[in-house]
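Service request form, structural biology core

Requester: graduate student, group of Dr. S.
Request type: structure prediction, single chain
Budget code: on file
Notes: please return the result as structure tokens.

Sequence provided:
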Amino acid sequence: MKGPDVLGRREVSMARVVDAPRDLVFKAWTDPKLLARWWGPRGMTTTICEIDPRPGGIFRTVARDESGNEFPTAGVFLEVVDNERLVFTGAGDYAGPTHERYVTVTEVSFEDEGQRTRITSTARRLSLAAMARSADRAD
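Core staff response, request fulfilled:
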């Protein structure tokens, strides 16, 4: 039996095939001007996008909703394999009812599928509040 997840982990995986070659798709993830055009959910605009796609390089975005609320996220690239794989962190504030701070680790892979590209993305989120509650129990 699996016990409660005291670290507040959440994992979301998704795959999508896009009608573009892998090098262009990878560029859309690693060029800040291109990433800013599509990053985030519908109804949000990425107003700041600073990325340096190399291990240790910055990953920073600020998204703005239709009401003008801003949602900054900052992290670093952990792994970059040109046209194949990205792994990066992100930290920010959850915009839901709890307004908890979180950290994510996102892994993205890019695979040829004929003339198209399969993108597989897995994001693992840790709640900082849940981590703190767990650390308090270690005393």
